[in-house]
Amino acid sequence: MTALSASVSLTWPGGPLRGTAQVPASKSESNRALIIQALAEGGQLANLSDANDTQLMQRLLQEKDAATFDAEDAGTVMRFLTAYLAMTGRQTELRGTARMHERPIAVLVDALRQLGARIEYLGEEGYPPMRLLGRTPQPATEEADFTELTVRGDISSQYISALLMVGPMLPHGLRIWLTGKVGSRPYIRMTLALMRHFGAHCRDLGEVLEVRPEPYQPTNYTVEGDWSAASYWYAMVALAPAGSHLTLPTLRRHSWQGDQAIVGIMEKLGVQTEFLADETVRLTQIAPAASLAQDFTDCPDLAQTVAVLAAALGVPTEMTGLESLRIKETDRIAALQNELAKFGGALTDAGEGVFRVAAENFRVAGQTVATYHDHRMAMAFAPLALRGPLTIQAPQVVRKSYPQFWRELEKTGFTTDPAPAPVF
Ligand SMILES: O=C(O)C1=C[C@@H](OP(=O)(O)O)[C@@H](O)[C@H](O)C1
Ligand SMILES: C=C(OP(=O)(O)O)C(=O)O
């Protein structure tokens, strides 16, 4: 498989799935640690992700005087860098892929403007690309308590994480009042946990978040494996022949990642998790429940894995909290609906935020799955190869979060045609 392979065909030779699969390091942790390390001016980071989103963040943070920063299709890079560059007073442009220019950023830009940043939109108002024109710092006065912001939490938590991370640099710190239904909250908690690890003083009071104006301390950190990436292996164990089990190294029992919720979800979809010593988990196939109802507000990146798996297993599933899926790498609800239909599955909008997964006659028999520039579409459908031959288009999309995904499939016994190249 080369960087430009149009598609990859997957087959499973039969027999149980067994062995060890390597998951990448968490890109969410990696990208926070990189921003905080840049602000702390020191500390060693171990096990950084090889995801393109992280490699890109690392490269861009080293580009001191670039006239343009290209965040490509990486949401965290676009949002975290906007806050970092704006608050460090940089004058530069920020852009991304065509899709990134459709992903909203007004909530973050409005908040940064209140903190003195001068930012103008170069295309459509409220969306990248933008030009940063420097910053008028706020004066430090004796009386001021925190600098206060009110930020809506119902579009993307990445705006809030981006603001929190620059909070320690502000003369009065930051107090953020959250409004609306806050989505992806575990990512906000992860941000606060990493900030504390690097010496910041912050408090999570529910609808109020506070960051004191005390600098980060250079600190070392070892990034955990990525639980969102682990979810695809869970789906594979659930769909594999009886007697399947798999171990996944680098995953912690006490994780900062909300997508560890996959452990509980999969107890209902046919996989039991055992936490072994040395940060390894062992997955074993069990019988699935008769039905599932799951809210994805806290873990939107698991929705595709679960929708495809539930359809394939024929477990009627009610999914809620999917609002943010429409503004991610693609409109993930529409993409799921189109692709599930090819197999006899369906994701039906039942109104009032409820979606139902159904599969009367789900069949895997040589279908071709389109991936919509979305790594998670490719990885969520790949496990279906355990039930029949399957082709996935534009397989290189996985490089965003899991460049070694196809290689790991091969290692665990799948046949991939063409074979994966060492690096995409
Ligand atoms: O902060 C992060 O690392 C992320 C937050 C989530 O986005 P939203 O907050 O936009 O839901 C998630 O979907 C994304 O993959 C990573
Ligand atoms: C939504 C995702 O990423 P981002 O928003 O950082 O582009 C994702 O990885 O599923």
Automatic annotation (TrEMBL):
Pathway: Metabolic intermediate biosynthesis; chorismate biosynthesis; chorismate from D-erythrose 4-phosphate and phosphoenolpyruvate: step 6/7. Phosphoenolpyruvate binds at K27, G75, R103, Q158, R332, R376, K400. InterPro entries: Enolpyruvate_Tfrase_dom (IPR001986), Enolpyruvate_Tfrase_sf (IPR036968), EPSP_synthase (IPR006264), EPSP_synthase_CS (IPR023193), RNA3'P_cycl/enolpyr_Trfase_a/b (IPR013792). It is an enzyme of class 2 (transferase). Residues 14-63, 66-409 form the Enolpyruvate transferase domain. Keywords: Amino-acid biosynthesis, Aromatic amino acid biosynthesis, Cytoplasm, Transferase. Its EC number is 2.5.1.19. It is found in: Cytoplasm. 3-phosphoshikimate binds at K27, S28, R32, S156, S157, Q158, S184, D301, K328. It catalyses: 3-phosphoshikimate + phosphoenolpyruvate = 5-O-(1-carboxyvinyl)-3-phosphoshikimate + phosphate. The active site is at D301. It comes from the Bacteria. Signal peptide: none annotated. HAMAP family: EPSP_synth (MF_00210). Monomer. Catalyzes the transfer of the enolpyruvyl moiety of phosphoenolpyruvate (PEP) to the 5-hydroxyl of shikimate-3-phosphate (S3P) to produce enolpyruvyl shikimate-3-phosphate and inorganic phosphate. Belongs to the EPSP synthase family. This is 3-phosphoshikimate 1-carboxyvinyltransferase. It comes from Hymenobacter guriensis.
